[in-house]
Amino acid sequence: MQILTSYVQGRFHAGSGASVTLYNPTTEEALAQASSAGIDFKGVLEYARAKGGPALRAMTYAQRGAMLEALSKAIHAHRDELIELSIQNAGTPRSDAKFDIDGAIGTLAYYGRLGQELGARTFLYDGPGVQLGRTARFWGEHVLVARPGVAVHINAFNFPAWNMMEKAACALLAGTPVVEKPGTPTALVAWRIAQLCVASGALSEGAFQFIAGSVGDLLDHMGPQDSLAFTGSSATAAKLRGHANLVRNNVRVNFEADSLNAAVLARDVEAGSDAFNLFVANVALDMTQKSGQKCTAVRRVFVPKERVDELTAEIVAAANAVKLGDPSDAAVRMGPLASADQLRDVRAGIERLAKHARIATGGAGAIRERGYFVAPTVLVAADARQGAFHAEEVFGPCAVVLPYSGDAHEAAELVALGGGSLVTSVYSNDQAFLETAGLAIGAWSGRVWLGSDKMAEQSLAPGMVLPQMIHGGPGRAGGGEELGGLRGLSFYLQRVALQGFKGVIAPDSLCVSRSAAPTA
Ligand code: NAP
Questions:
Q1: At what angle do helices 162-174 and 61-76 cross, to 10 degrees?
Q2: What whole-number distance in Å separates Cα of residue 177 and Cα of residue 449?
Q3: Ligand 1 atom closest to Cα of 480?
Q4: What share of the chain is helix, strand, coil (3-state, %, to 5)?
Q5: 195-221: buried (b, 16+ CB within 10 Å) or exposed (e) per residue?
Q6: What is the whole-number distance in angstroms between the Cα of residue 35 and the centre of ligand 1?
Q7: Beta strand 6-8 with 398-404: parallel, antiparallel or unpaired?
Q8: What is the pLDDT of residue 17?
Q9: Among 304, 425, 303, 318, which residue's Cα sits nearest to residue 376?
Q10: Residue percentage of the chain with pLDDT more than 70
């Protein structure tokens, strides 16, 4: 059986003692074991601070960008092997495996290019300067400088490649060494990527460490210049938020937690129109892609009350047209859930929702003899305000159709009952509906995706997280923010207000050879 090693303090470490077993969720066969026992976690942070930080901070943005581009290429060169590992350990069909792995490759390449564009500078200006004195002699500038700390990244099981590398890309470009910990049940892909990154020779010393298994007492040793970015359930996020050492040292934290994402169909969208087809296709895609184990997947589908039966029938037909089965079969589009724990949780979640809604298709029952499979499940509710639909994240191929009046304000109010989401999609060809719903929902959703006939042909699905746009959401969704081009670097940088003689601090003066013009 494969033993997943950690990569700490410049070498691979095989954990001793109790380990966690990773399974193939299609066959339920044991695949690998992970254990971080024996790691000196305090030493991990000290090593990153002593070696990783100084080496990265000595590099310009262009040099760090080149490093990210080299990592992107190193992963791309092993794309097929990684897809195969994803099929085995995450139960993802090839298309879903690509979604994760290409996401990692593309995000690294994007931030690599951004670094190259920033060029030979080691810090960034943030916005225009301000005159502070009677004349421009006394001047102010906001500048973003690298912090001499470590970025600890705790990632969820559902995107072992993308989740690890989107965080690493932003931190490394900002000049911060990383410690990456993937979700253990699907860590095989992340572990192989860690090996590839190390073998590429592109990483500066101490820039990257990887932990297979638990983070042990790592968080107890984090300090005021360190940062923790977490992706996972809101239950774990709540535990980490209250961690005594993180609170004591005011460690910077960013939480990406679970989310009851919504889709809203307006009354004006006619059956058979491009916007209508897009709505049905996107809801079915979100339910079945990665077997619904996507933080951005739609869970609540709001449709005008007189169209519930029509829309339910369309969604059921589209979801059931997706071939379910062994993900190594090229014709299969939906595999099993990633783990036995996931299967237990999803079944229990469907049963809880079914107390308040009728099941139009699917359900919690077993559908195959072996493997952690659940059928695509569409529920239909009579009362859109029933609390369970806005509180229960069933992290699987499951969505609930909920009736509303067709009024944009009411749609926004219902979306808000979820307490904060990562993404809400709104489908209409009516400018007033899109504006009203979109802006009202904006306060409750990190991203609002506006679907219409005009953009249907070119659109990327709402569940897709793009490095150019921010990812994160308020309230229940964690209250965090990642990516968004240069915005993604801010979490790792210190914004400092420089005040003094303009001739010293304005962009054409301050370290002119290293930082040419205002950016950020
Ligand atoms: P999880 O159980 O909360 O675990 C997330 C990560 O936290 C894993 O690496 C886990 O390690 C680690 N962890 C658990 N307890 C910990 C503790 N006490 N101290 C330190 N680390 C701890 O979530 P999951 O099941 O992996 O992921 C599914 C959830 O993530 C869903 O709710 C989904 O909505 C959410 N998610 C959100 C986003 C987003 O961007 N907002 C993206 C993806 C997923 P082990 O695996 O070793 O237990």
A1: 160
A2: 34
A3: 41
A4: 40, 20, 40
A5: bbbbebebbbebbbbbbbbbbbebbeb
A6: 17
A7: unpaired
A8: 76
A9: 318
A10: 98
> What is the 184 CA–ligand 1 centroid distance (Å)?
9
Question: Which of 69, 141, 170, 295 is an active site residue?
Answer: 295
Give CA–CA dist 222/230, Å, rounded.
Answer: 14
8 A C-beta contact, residue 38 and residue 17: yes
* End-to-end CA gap in the chain: 47
Give me the residues paired with residue 254 across strands.
Answer: 229
User: Is 256 an active-site residue?
Assistant: yes
> In sequence order, what DSSP letters do the residues of 223-271 get, joined into one string?
-TT-EEEEES-HHHHHHHHT-HHHHHTT-EEEEE----EEEEE-TT--T
The tokens of 238 are what?
């709540």
Q: Is the pLDDT of residue 144 over 90?
A: yes
Is any ligand 1 atom within 6 A of the Cβ of residue 344? Answer: no
Alpha carbon distance 380, 401 (integer Å): 5
Closest listed residue to residue 106, CA positions, set 467, 458, 460: 467
The span from the CA of 430 to the CA of 465, in Å, is 26
As to burial, measured by CB atoms within 10 angstroms (0-12 exposed, 13-18 middle, 19+ buried), residue 241 is: middle
Cβ of 220 below 6 Å from ligand 1: no
**Radius of gyration over alpha carbons of the chain, in Å?**
24
**DSSP characters over 80-96:** HHHHHHHHHHH---HHH
Nearest to 475 by CA among 349, 390, 348: 390
The Cα–Cα gap between 342 and 90 comes to 11
Contact, 176 vs 251, CB < 8 A? Answer: no
User: 288: closest CA among 427, 364, 380, 398?
Assistant: 398
Any ligand 1 atom below 6 A from CB of 289: no
Distance CA 69, CA 9 (A): 23
CA distance 417 to 155: 27
pLDDT tens for residues 450-508? 999 999 999 999 999 999 999 999 999 999 999 999 999 999 999 999 999 999 998 87
> pTM, whole model, 2 decimals?
0.95
Helices in 304-407 by DSSP H: which ranges? Answer: 308-320, 340-354
How far is residue 37's CA from residue 39's CA, in Å, rounded to a whole number? 6
Q: DSSP label at 419?
A: S
Count CB neighbours of 309 within 10 A: 12
